[in-house]
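Progress report, Aim 2. The chain analyzed during this reporting quarter is listed below.
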Amino acid sequence: MTRHVLVTGANRGIGRAIAESFVAAGFTVSSIHRSGELPEGVDGAIADITDTDAVNAAFDALEERHGRVEVLVANAGITRDGLLMRMSDEDFETVLDTNLTGTFRCVRRATQSMVRQRFGRIVLVGSVVGLMGNPGQVNYSASKSALVGMARSITREVGARGITANVIAPGFITTDMTDDLGADLVKQYEANIPAKRFGSTDDVAAAALYLASDGAGYVSGAVIPVDGGLGMGH
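Predicted structure tokens for the chain:
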């Protein structure tokens, strides 16, 4: 019996690449997502992670079909960028409700299953800007920074039950969003990255596969940067 991995937001970008990598590695993979098409081999449940009842119902449905979730990759997130002095309460609260509280809702439900089976891997997809900050992203940076405290608190709370919780902190990764930046802006960003290039979604997926593996059973409360060296020292 293969392990059941649930990846939130597996319909696009980093989440899609992570889901595809787990499928290729032989895992049973499902997703909670709001819209879009999922990769081949990934079962899905439509739900908004800002809705507790919807999250719980989606977990129930997916676990009924595939057994208890043993690996959770909490990837789903949004941005509402804007300068601090012009950022509305709504833009701040919406990002935190999705990226932070939405992740909490998924982790809380997944942990119920993991505690029963005394095994679990929780992988939270953060961001390098949660560690080093970024102008125009006070809301996003705050939501991603908070995932570090969440993972470390989870580790102290349920680590004795065979459950690990870690954060992946991607840097600039080539996705549909970065494709819209323009060549000049890409060059400007690349100049600040020691590796002098953007990463790929496969780079992030490889880190998720490692953290979900038996080999990472003694790694918990860690932040794994996948950023070409951009966030060193943070």
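The radius of gyration is 17 Å. The domain at 4-179+194-226 is CATH 3.40.50.720 (Rossmann fold). These observations will guide the mutagenesis work planned for the next reporting period.
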